[in-house]
Amino acid sequence: MDLAATVVRTALNGVSYVSPRLAGRAAFRLFRTPRGRSRLRPDERPVMDRAVVGEIAVGGGRAVSYRWGTGERPVLLVHGWESRGSRFATLVSELLDLGLSPVAFDAPGHGDATGESMTILDLRDIVAALDADHGPFEMIVAHSVGVTATFLAVRESGVRTERIVAISGVPDFAYLVDGFCAGLGLRGRLNRELRGRVERELFPGEDDIWARFSVPRTEIPMEARTRMGGGPSVLVVHDEDDDMVDPAGSHALAAALGDRARLVLTHGLGHRRIIGDRQVAAHVRDFVISEASSDPSPRSAAG
Q1: Which pLDDT tens digit goes with each residue over 2-38?
Q2: Kindly report the CA angle at 132 between 127 and 134, in degrees rounded to 5?
Q3: In Å, how far are 27, 125, 212 from 215, measured between CA atoms?
Q4: 233-268, pLDDT tens digit by residue?
Q5: CB neighbours of residue 89 within 10 Å
Q6: Which domains are assigned to the chain?
Q7: Residues 170-199: b if buried by 16+ CB within 10 A, e if exposed
Q8: Which listed site, 11, 131, 186, 274, has its alpha carbon 20 to 30 Å from 160?
Q9: Residue 269 · residue 244 · CB < 8 Å
């Protein structure tokens, strides 16, 4: 744990003994605020310079959108926490070569977007807004908490897609809260305070939000389903050496989806590098060009 995290842990835990509500409020603010903005990398710039740039009003800021191609056969790319749309640059090139039209974005508090904070509801609303402008999507590729938001958008906002690629997916919303508290070494009482504040401020009056955000238990409503019948086919990708999100969640998702899912396991990429990996991009390319029903059984491949 770095010095800044140690200071935060000590301060929050100390305040929680005197005023749990005050400590919970501070923890909630930190929970929604990225520690820093990912910067555009030199190798990503040639791809990003070719994008048509737009804006999407969401939450307390404006997301920045990027699109390539002709608009035919659109594919949406959904980044995760403390990431940005440019991290998909390698995949954007692959998709363009296949005649697809990628669409990406920077969420508030990320990349070149405005604002300082982001919630899973912001991600859901961005996905829904881009679906309204560019959908239905042939495929949605999501990473980390973007996977959670994508399944939520498909289920609750009627976002339409034929395929989903879930990379290093966060299995549920509770995992985010627990991981945040564990990472900072916060007391159990602060975890409970944070959960209560999430319930009151993000989802007032709603029942059991923790089950609602469970990706493996997501049921796709009929109106969001596509020509593929039982709902989108799903490619589940996770690195066995991911030290931020337990691969067990992706195994559970693939198992829950049964013959609609294909499971690809990589090694040595961790949580963040996986979305820019060329072999992962090749798996996604193969998923696009293959018939959804040609090989429905889950499989595992080394990366």
Answers
A1: 545 565 656 666 666 656 677 777 788 888 888 878 8
A2: 85
A3: 25, 17, 8
A4: 899 999 999 989 999 999 988 988 888 889 999 999
A5: 23
A6: 1-32+173-212 (no CATH), 38-171+219-289 (3.40.50.1820)
A7: bbbbbbbbeebbeebebbeebbebbbebbb
A8: 274
A9: no
